[in-house]
UniProtKB/TrEMBL annotation, chains A, B:
One of its GO terms (cellular component) is cytosol. Its EC number is 6.3.4.21. The lineage of its organism: Eukaryota, Metazoa, Spiralia, Lophotrochozoa, Mollusca. It catalyses: 5-phospho-alpha-D-ribose 1-diphosphate + nicotinate + ATP + H2O = nicotinate beta-D-ribonucleotide + ADP + phosphate + diphosphate. The keyword Lyase does not apply. Its cofactor is Mg(2+); Mn(2+). Residues 429-538 form the Nicotinate phosphoribosyltransferase C-terminal domain. This is Nicotinate phosphoribosyltransferase. GO terms for molecular function: glycosyltransferase activity; metal ion binding; nicotinate phosphoribosyltransferase activity.
Length: 553, 553
């Protein structure tokens, strides 16, 4: 291998690695580094800390969240290393009197001394419970806060958004992610494609996401393709090979024959359909005779696009191919999809071709979750939604407010107080159990002190609201599940990191254990995350100990 | 250099290249590739096309947009190449009967045959006018659509958002971007830091952005740092070297002395301040004696944080150092900032230290543009804003709707019609001029046919609304500027790509030429983008020619 090939080889390898999202610890907030120095300087570099990563409120006014981003967090720990050039830069932005030994400390820092516990990627999670917690030397973990939050926040947000679209559309619709051009940067787009698939989408338009993550890729043509043709004379060849390879047919003549026939079926005026559009459809069909799906609204969806599509579709059928359907990208999608289906039905009846009635109708005009609910109410004939901007940028709420809070130092609990009860942290290490009812549905999540006995199947356990004294409930679980696993310890990955397709299937299954009323779009019921009596007493004693007593004056 | 070092070297080099955002053409929508094949197959691979990249509506209910992302677009053209492995993947997702010559075509495709015209990065731009247009072989340009849109849309959106925050805060406030943890993926965060700086921010917390783009980085410490200390016994050393290096002082004793003194000035009860917080501030001051800025709201900003800060600040002053100030991250920022300033004033008066009254007050609690306007109305004492989520995710509108439309093929104009007039494209190649008044303010932008004479200084020119016949105005420009430049031709970059700091200064200057009423937050006046009479007639003739005649029934 020559030197240049060598570079090229590594370029490919590394580039896709970077595109896979493996980030370096220098992608952090400066204050993590200044804090690390202050910890180091005050002799706290070996203090053993515990941090919880959690969020305070489900996104999108919903009552559930899909946890995502874990595999990238593990890869981040595996690759945790400040390069020489990173340290050189850090040195340049810290004060000149910063002790040089600190930079050696940074250079030699790895994630080998930290332990990460997490729920599985794709798990349905709720506010206040740790999605992950991490134990180890205080400054090292402090340096991991920002990248871990960055990797979890958007991944979980967009996976949850995708799942909300899936719940809105129902299980039988095809959902395609078309967000690349409007996503927040190139990597924002890649993350969107990956985690929308995890959250229940069926495919993406993003070719690189297909290559990197094995997501099915989909796409046909745009308006520009249609407007680039003006008449059938733009089409290079009249011919198309029949599917069985038996002969070439004069495809243009075949189209013109069907155009005349169909004008009495749909009906339309052959001189009113756009000739450039017909030429574009003919060209596209010649290139993809087995995958003909046409965008019909460049000029007029019903007067021009639909007849032109049906014309070419029938000519393809006569040549042995099965056309796929149409796409609508503007206008009243309910009305237009009904009109298109009616046209398909007429042709199905006239030619006795039942499949023609079932051709695909894809819709893709700036669709959000509410659009789908509204279309469901109005009625529509759409089989497949292509969704971009609103899905990938999570327009309803473009950030998940994940936080990373210190809960313990050297086995002593830590608690951040706040006048806002929502911002008070639950101190110390905790265990979290999901308690299920006899019907298989999750009833409640229960956080306990680590040394408390675990809840037992068939035995009554008291679940308390973490902050409101009077809110308590007894639960007799039919199944008890500790939701966290050790994912990373002593520099080793301890759990399988399943491929995306497997994660997707698992996520869809896990969601079934969450009751419908927690998942509905309008006024969902909150799912309860509770604490044991032991944890309740522990945190409230600590709270009283630390809270200053006010003075009324 | 050993093999392993070699790999490592390239890893660093390539990784930061990828992080610089140089993206490959495979980061595209599949339909660009299927269209390219259909073009190729119907003999249109050498058709000469022109595409305009523009947007239809300013973001955030505003009336201006900052154009950004150009340098990355140029780098994308420079690096435009489908690798062998990309082509292998594309082959695997296209139908098996796709002609193999197409894949050779893809492998050999470069951007050397395309020409890119653009406005300078940082230019203030308006709806409907091309930010860039690109000429060259139809399939090649089609393959550039998605990456170019991805690179321009978010960059321009977030730069515009940053500028709105700058306009809200005024020129004298320090604005810091703190969005990394909530941004849409790692690269979303890097792009945010870069383009927020371009749009008028002063710095970022993002260390990698500092390293890559030379943006000033800022940051001190978090709540976790404070809660990790419980008492002064957690502090490793009592000592601090005086700034002049003359002697070490017993810094803890000095702090305790000032604590007692100050308790009569502010006033506060020394047994009510949190001891862990004091220890944390002492530790931080020992690590950064010249950069002491303390987060004061972990326990109680006024009863604990402020006295603890002032205690340590006075001890630093007595040791020769100047403290920096405080940060507030919760509560009523107007009220708290007044309370803090009042405390600073008391100390300034008591010790005759005028600089103490002017210490920095940084605020960083989930601030958006409206918060700043509201704080301005209420009055506040904040010097510096740290802004995260709302800034980087552009919560008010998380996507710019940039589009890329075909306007010409083989010198013949193309027009996309739509029932929505906003979506009708302005066909053909155009020239765009910005016409200025005698006061230096921009009056109107004027699009003309390429062969029309350019507007002349001092001569009356008719500017027409592109769609509404009756809306016309005569303008006598005091200055005329053609806003586009040739940026890329024959594989060469034709214009300097200035460093980020220079672009930032230029952007701030360019904004001054836009009248205040176009920039205000509430009900801004739309800036007019007009067409010449020649272009008006040209597009309306073409429109009538293509639009189907409706039938009322």
């Amino acid at each position: 291998m020559s030197g240049e090939e060598n570079i090229d080889f590594h370029f490919q390898r590394i580039q896709s690695k970077a595109q896979n999202g493996v980030i370096q610890p220098i992608l952090t907030d400066l204050y993590q580094i200044t804090m690390a120095y202050a910890y180091w300087k005050s002799g706290k570099m070996n203090d053993q800390a515990v941090f919880d990563l959690y969020f305070r409120k489900n996104p999108f006014n919903g009552e559930f969240t899909i946890f995502a981003g874990l595999e990238e967090c593990i890869k981040f720990l595996q690759n945790f290393h400040f390069s020489e050039s990173d340290v050189k830069y850090i040195r340049s932005v810290l004060p000149p009197n910063t002790e040089p030994e600190f930079f050696h400390y940074l250079e030699n820092l790895t994630a080998n001394d930290v332990t990460l516990y997490a729920v599985d990627e794709g798990t349905v999670v709720f506010p206040k419970e740790p999605l992950m917690w991490i134990e180890g030397p205080l400054p090292a973990i402090q340096l991991m806060e920002t990248p871990l939050l960055n990797l979890v926040n958007y991944a979980s947000l967009v996976a949850t958004n995708a799942m909300r679209f899936r719940l809105a559309a129902g299980p039988d619709k095809t959902l395609l992610e078309f967000g690349l051009r409007r996503a927040q940067g190139p990597d924002g787009a890649l993350s969107a494609s990956r985690y929308c698939y995890l959250g229940g989408f069926d495919g993406t338009s993003n070719v690189l996401a297909g290559k990197l993550y094995g997501i099915p890729v989909r796409g046909t043509h745009a308006h520009a393709f249609v407007t680039s043709y003006t008449s059938l004379s733009d089409v290079k060849t009249r011919m198309l090979m029949r599917k069985d390879g038996s002969a070439e047919v004069d495809f243009i003549s075949l189209c013109l024959k069907y155009q005349e026939e169909l004008s009495t079926v749909l009906p339309f005026l052959p001189d009113q359909v756009n000739k450039g559009e017909l030429a574009a459809f003919v060209s596209y069909a010649q290139a993809f005779p087995g995958g003909f799906l046409a965008l019909i609204d460049t000029y007029d969806a019903i007067k021009s696009g639909l007849p032109n599509f049906c014309t070419v579709a029938m000519a393809l059928w006569a040549s042995g191919y099965t056309p796929q359907g149409i796409r609508l990208d503007s206008g009243d999608l309910s009305y237009l999809s009904h009109m298109v289906r009616e046209g398909f039905n007429k042709i199905a009846n006239r030619y006795d071709l039942p499949w023609f009635a079932n051709l695909n109708i894809v819709a893709s005009n700036d669709i959000n979750e509410d659009t789908i609910h509204s279309l469901n109410q109005q009625g529509h004939e759409i089989n497949s939604f292509g969704i971009g901007t609103h899905l990938v940028t999570c327009q309803k709420q473009p950030a998940l407010g994940g936080v990373f809070k210190l809960t313990e130092v050297n086995c002593k609990p830590r608690m951040k107080l706040s006048e806002d009860v929502e911002k008070v942290t639950i101190p110390g290490k905790k265990k979290v159990y999901r308690l299920y009812g006899a019907d298989g549905n999750a009833l409640v999540d229960l956080m306990t002190l680590p040394n408390e006995p675990e809840p037992k199947v068939g035995q009554r356990v008291l679940c308390r609201h973490p902050f409101q004294e009077s809110k308590r409930a007894y639960v007799i679980p039919a199944k008890v599940e500790a939701i966290h696993k050790t994912y990373w310890v002593n520099g080793e990955v301890m759990q399988p990191l399943p491929p995306l397709t497997e994660l997707r299937a698992k996520t869809m299954n896990l969601l079934k254990t969450i009751r419908q009323d927690h998942k509905r779009a309008l006024n969902p019921t909150p799912y309860k995350v509770s604490v044991s009596t032991g944890l309740y007493s522990f945190m409230h004693e600590l709270w009283l100990e630390h809270a200053p007593i006010g003075e009324l004056s």
